[in-house]
Amino acid sequence: MSGVTLGNVIKRYGDVQVIHGVDLQIEDGEFCVFVGPSGCGKSTLLRMVAGLEETTEGTISIGSRDVTHMDPAQRGVAMVFQTYALYPHMTVKENMGFGLKMNGHPKSEIDQKVGEASRILKLDDYLSRKPAALSGGQRQRVSIGRAIVRGPEVFLFDEPLSNLDAELRVEMRVEIARLHKEIGATMIYVTHDQVEAMTLADKIVVLRAGYIEQVGAPMELYRDPDSKFVAGFIGSPAMNFLNGVVKEGGIDVPALQTTVPVKLPADHVGRSVTIGVRPEHIEVDRAGKTHSVDLSESLGGVSYVYLMSETGEKIVVEERGDERSNEGDTVSMRFDTGHVMVFDGETEKRIRF
Length: 353
Ligand code: ADP
Ligand code: MG
Known about the structure:
The chain is α+β, with helices and mostly antiparallel strands. The protein has helices at 42-50, 92-102, 107-121, 136-149, 166-183, 194-200, 218-223, 228-233; strands spanning 4-13, 16-26, 31-35, 57-62, 65-66, 77-80, 154-158, 186-191, 203-208, 211-216, 240-246, 251-253, 258-260, 272-277, 282-285, 291-298, 303-308, 314-319, 330-335, 341-344, 350-351.
């Protein structure tokens, strides 16, 4: 078992640099999730760890070994792809054992390892089937099984659940979490889905345009984001952002028709800022008459109420309980200023106060 260390890792395709000096320490046995919007460099970074992409500059170590320029097969990693990449003419059992067979492992050992992976993944009843006769979730399980039998030090997953429907995705997410608990190996998992990141990760790495934006435990990123980008990316529905200007006694927020009484340092007066409040931290005030309800989406246990402000800025509020707002209502909002975050209007970095 081994951790993974990236030191000033850079990737260039020709003249175009897509990874800009990433430093990262992933601990032994940790479940680390790379998350970020499409094109931010998640797969590139993962493929560099796998050895499927050449590292232009910097170093990658697994445990105490510098693997930067090693062959993929020598690195002690196994990768699971979005597209499963199973051999259609082989059975489940043959697919899982193929890598070991190619490397000349004895049949008894292959049978034992495939048996163990099959038990972990509950594939015992499907071992003699071909991939065409499996559901998407079962196919992805086989490709995870193929990774397990290789006994890697590090598992690498690139959006493994993206091809599954919503229900199966949730089911497989739980399975992968269980797998990590049972095997205890270091895992790096790439996804653009912040819910997967939140639910699976010990450590989330938020990537943005080839840079690390922030690294932290899921609840650290949720509670204490360093930037508007992270604040907006983690949490669903996303945090509300409203423009404001810093005054003596607080922040003047036109969309709320009020001054939010948060005290920033005196030298901030006059600055443009963005305030952020999460939907779950705002309450509808039915006595107020400042905002019209554009839409109310009820999911059953919770409703998402979309309010329109005179500035044209939308605000989403989470409502629970028996009394819910309806389209066409006119209401106001209440929130605790302890839940307000402030971001610099230009740099979008968090202003802590
Ligand atoms: P993600 O997985 O986060 O969606 P990628 O790592 O696939 O993003 O891509 C990161 C950036 O690198 C993108 O801008 C993409 O266009 C670019 N890129 C990826 N592969 C290549 C390639 N083979 N040649 C040139 N640019 C590439
Ligand atoms: Mg990708």
